[in-house]
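Project outcomes to date are best conveyed with an example. Our students and postdoctoral researchers have been running inverse folding experiments weekly, and each run begins with a structure described purely in tokens. The record below, which covers 305 residues, was selected by the lab manager from last quarter's runs and is presented without edits.
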């Protein structure tokens, strides 16, 4: 499961911690949750328009993380500076996969789309295993373990940067969907694709643009993760499990819900890690997942079907 590199600590179950330690854990959890939210944004955006769960999301995240590793080792490019390079490349990759592979192979059948994305995930994961083997790799950067001292709390510098970028991406994505013609077309297709087609919107193009935007989001997330995380050919699946919980908590197809849900899940994970130990830190995430499914299956901001 996702576990950022940090110093190993011993915890006692339900040990009493000073308020400053608890506050620091919550703040660092919120910072981590912002990256979870960014991964979930791509997942919920694709669901909101195509109305399917993209099973290839985790494999594409892994591919993006390896791309960050390669551009750093091959070109010496810092992961954060790789964002403007990899984001358009992965948007194009997502657009091409939906327009040339997923759409034609599924023949617009939702069940077939699920199978195609699952098959795509298996192909990508095995291709990465063939090229990179099962070894775990990480970047060694000067600032990976640097902290920001707020006086009352110490925050991880990479997570602070990740929080700022994730919030900026969410705002930009909201602006694109709300203020641009393409965004209005995306919302029209999400609401009623037949009606959108009747007024002249190219539904296949909008599907591909949406898939491209979702893939671009995980490319940015990969750039934010690599300074403080490791990568192996299966690591993306663990993040998508958390991201799916975020999507369910926030509401399927809701961008504000994905953002708020990601922050909440990050805080819960951090507190559980503090009180129960890192190995049990994700118990709280899946308890929330079950409770949401039982008592509010539409999530915080989701609408009834």
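After processing, the design step wrote out the following sequence:
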């Amino acid at each position: 499961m996702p576990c950022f590199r940090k110093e190993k600590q011993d915890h006692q179950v339900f040990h009493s911690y000073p308020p400053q330690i608890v506050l620091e854990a919550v703040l660092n959890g919120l910072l981590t949750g912002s990256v979870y939210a960014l991964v979930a944004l791509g997942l919920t955006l694709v669901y909101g328009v195509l109305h399917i769960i993209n099973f290839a999301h985790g494999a594409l995240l892994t591919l993006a993380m390896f791309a960050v590793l390669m551009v750093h080792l091959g070109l010496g490019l810092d992961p954060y500076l790789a964002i403007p390079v990899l984001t358009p490349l992965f948007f194009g990759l997502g657009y091409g996969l939906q327009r040339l592979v997923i759409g034609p192979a599924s023949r617009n059948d939702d069940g077939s789309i699920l199978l195609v994305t699952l098959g795509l995930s298996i192909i990508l994961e095995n291709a990465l295993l063939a090229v990179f083997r099962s070894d775990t790799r990480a970047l060694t950067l000067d600032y990976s373990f640097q902290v920001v001292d707020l006086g009352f709390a110490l925050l991880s510098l990479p997570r602070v940067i990740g929080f700022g970028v994730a919030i900026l991406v969410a705002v930009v994505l909201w602006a694109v969907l709300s203020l641009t013609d393409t965004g209005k077309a995306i919302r029209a297709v999400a609401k009623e694709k037949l009606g959108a087609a009747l007024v002249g919107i190219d539904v296949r193009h909008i599907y591909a643009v949406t898939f491209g935007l979702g893939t671009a989001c995980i490319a940015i997330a990969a750039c934010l993760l690599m300074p403080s995380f490791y990568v192996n050919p299966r690591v993306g699946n663990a993040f998508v499990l958390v991201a799916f919980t975020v999507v369910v908590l926030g509401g399927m197809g809701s961008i504000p819900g994905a953002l708020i849900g990601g922050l909440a899940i990050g805080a819960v994970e951090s507190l559980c890690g503090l009180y129960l130990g890192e190995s049990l830190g994700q118990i709280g995430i899946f308890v929330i997942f079950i409770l949401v499914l039982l008592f509010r299956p539409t999530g915080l901001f989701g609408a009834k079907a």
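The chain is about 70% helix and 5% strand. Residues 33 and 265 are 6 Å apart (CA to CA). The training component of this project remains on track.
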